[in-house]
Structure formats: C-alpha cells, structure tokens
Amino acid sequence: MSWSRILPLLHAPAAALVLLAAIGLLASCDSGETPAGPFNSGGVRTQVVVISDLHLGADLAYSETNENRQPLIDLLAQVRESPTVSELVIAGDMLDEWFVPATTETFAGGDQADFVGRIATANRDVIAALARIIREGDIRVTYVPGNHDLDITAENIASILPGIHQARDAVQGLGAYSPEGQPGIAIEHGHRYNFFCAPDPLSNCSIAPGSILPPGYFLTRIAALHVTQQCATPGDSIRTVTPNTGGGASQALAYAYWRAWKALLLNLPVENGFDDPIIATSLGGFTQTYAINDLMPYQATPGAFIDVNLFKGVVDTWGQRQAINHVAVPIPVMQALADILSPAGTDIQATTQYFANPASDVRIVVFGHTHDAKLITTVNHAGLKSIYANSGAWIDHSPGRTTLNFVVITPQGPEAWSRTEVKVYDFTGEVATELGADSLRL
User: How many CB atoms lie within 10 A of CB 266?
Assistant: First the structure.
C-alpha cells in the first residue's frame, strides 16, 4: 500500500469531490473517445503523455503492480506506435523503494544498484517497453522523481534505462518539469508539499547522516507489513499522549503530529508489539532496526513534554525543510499536518503553488502521488482559466478510485483559434476512456 492508498482508509473522497463540484471547479467529464484514439492530434508530433505511480517493485510477492503490468505494456506500445506523441513523462514513483514489508531488509544484503537491478528483472517487460521507446528516439522519455523513489540516484535510474531524460531539481528526490517550449505547463509528482512525504534532510541527521527519508517512508513499511499479514486485530495499543498546555506552539504541533500518527496506525494494524524492533532499514543512511514506538510521540506523564525518538523536532523544522525543497509558497505547519489526512491536500497545492502565486505564469499543472485521476478547472491570480490534472496510478488495487490512468496534453497550434487540450484517461480493458477534458489558450 503506497502512501496515497493509505488516505482512502481515513477519509472518503466523495465529500471533497462534492465540495469541488459545488463551487464549480470540476471540469465536465465526457465519456467515450473519438475513433482516432487519444494519441492522434492530426499527424503532428506534439503530444505529451503523462503517467505516474507505476510502483514497480523488486519482489512480486508484495509488489503493488502485478496484474496491471500487461495493460501498462500495452499502453506503452500504443504510445510508441503513435505518430503524434512527442514525449512520455513518468511523473514519479516509477520504482518503489518504500513499499517493502517492515520486517524485510529492502536491499537483501546488496545495495541500491542491486535493488534497482532486481526491479528491472522482476518487471523486465515494462522496462523493455520503455527502453524500446527511448532507443528508437522518436519520443522523448522523461522521468521525474516521486517519494517512493526519491532516494534512488540518477545513475541507478540510468543503469536500467540508458538514455532516459531525468528532470531533477538540485535537491535529491524532487523535480518539476516543463516540456520543451511549454513554460506554461508544470509536471511534478506532488510529494514536495506533503509533510510525511517531502524529503527530510534535517530530522535524523545525527542518527542517519545524509538521510532524506521522511516519516512517510516508515509509515509505508508498516502499511506493507499490514497488507502482507492481512491483520485485522492489532498486536498492541497506541500509547496515550495528552496536550502539553504549557509547552507553547511547538508542543501543540507535537500533539498534532501524534494525532496524525494515531489516525494512520489505527487503520494499519499489525500483529507485532509496538516496542518490537521490526522495521529493518540499511538504506538511506539508516542502519538500525526500529520499533513502531520509535516513530510515535510519547510523554512520561499526562500533560508533560511530548518527545519522539525518530524525527525529533520534525514539526519545528518544517519551514526550513520547505526552503530546502524549494517550495514557492510556504505551507503553515498546522495546515501541513492536517493535510496528511486529507486526500485533497496535494491537489490544493496546484492552486497554492502555481495558480494563486503571482510569481507563476503556469496555467496547466499535472501531479501524480494521490492515485486519484481527475481534472479540475479553475482560474489563476490574473483571472485566467487554468487546469489541474492528476495522472492517477497503475497499481493493481486503489480502493474507491480507478487505476490504469494517464494524461494527454495536446499543445495548441499557431492558429488563433487553437487551444491546448488536457485530457485524463482510464485504460481499463485496454480501452482508453476519457474521464475529463478541457482546454485553454496559453
């Protein structure tokens, strides 16, 4: 269960969607597709296809993407054969270094290069399909990092996909990409804005020098164990923390952080005791095996100081972490903590960081990360029509949502009447079905 699959366990997305519809933000969702198919814009090679959240794992015994590998291969074949696609963008979580059961040593005694090689072997047909597109050279293939592959280096990505274009920030694990000649379009995974998923080089620097793994990494390890155990009754109980009313703002935030962890763990029961060392690391700067209670805030007595073993001070360094991660519009820490439990929290950042930001001229944003394919039309700070699309996911199971999703952007031509089109699709049954579409003039 990847991070974004955890959220439906906590909040039904229907209420958020109803609210968006009520204020007129949801675009019309015309079903069906033209006979020409999604990858045909009249013979000109300009289309940009965006997929994300492939979650290719090294061990198919617990990988999230098994049944959907063949549909993905078939989609890639259609992209490769199209005369009008100019670029395929993989917007994060192509490889999965996070969704590994807590008790399993991720690298199995090897290193990251070996682990990435095992992913390529386990998913050889998908990697071969991508490699063929890259090798033939008609379509540029661009990779943007996500949170599940944020620690995987550019060299290790290139080792299995030579010639792939990587759109990376100067900060490891992040990237924001505008296709060539399209500064009005921004594509990124979206984890940059998530408290649990954005790179964190600060909290554990004394414990794991050089680590950028955020709290969501450890949560996902627990979630993967929950799935493999199929556990319904927890083996332990969450220790109680009460507000430290005299501790000021920092302690109020520490209590909110505990509440977030509590809400998540209640929905991810495991058989193990919370003091049992079960989370095997040996990656990202970590070398120890940790217990769930190493992650949970605690206090000696009710109302006393709230402390934590791992990610000590994480709530106090959120502002600094955002600056390091080049977040254009800082997100207040209490809002960020609340958004941990909000399926729409990442989507909202498309408006906050781009459309409502006077320093941004971007009017089309595509995120992945949430596994919730959608298209939302709004206006930007200058009152101009703007479009947000989410590219969904390719994992086998995403409760309450479709999978097998992709986005197609068809840039406008030189004619005054021409408009840039954005369409979101579902590929169930290996038939492209339009989930949402809109257009604007950039």
Answer: 13
Q: What is the SS3 assignment for 232?
A: coil
Residue ranges of alpha helices (H) inside 174-271 are 215-229, 248-266
- How far apart (Å, rounded) are the C-alpha atoms in residues 270 and 228? 9
Token pair for residue 418? Answer: 């021409």
The per-type count for the chain, helices as H runs and strands as E runs, is: 11, 14
Q: 346-387: per-residue pLDDT in tens?
A: 999 999 999 999 999 999 999 999 999 999 999 999 999 999
**Residue partners of 167: CB distance under 8 A and separation at least 6:** 89, 142, 143, 144, 175, 176, 177, 187
Please answer whether residues 167 and 91 qualify as being in contact, where contact means their C-beta atoms are separated by less than 8 angstroms. Answer: no
Q: Which of 357, 349, 355, 365 is nearest to 409 (CA)?
A: 365
Cβ–Cβ < 8 Å for 4, 393: yes
Phi first, then psi: give them for residue 22, nearest 5 degrees. Answer: -65, -30
Question: pTM value?
Answer: 0.91
Quote the radius of gyration of the chain (alpha carbons, Å).
21
Query: Which residue reads 């700070």 in tokens?
Result: 381
The residue assigned the tokens 């609340």 is: 338
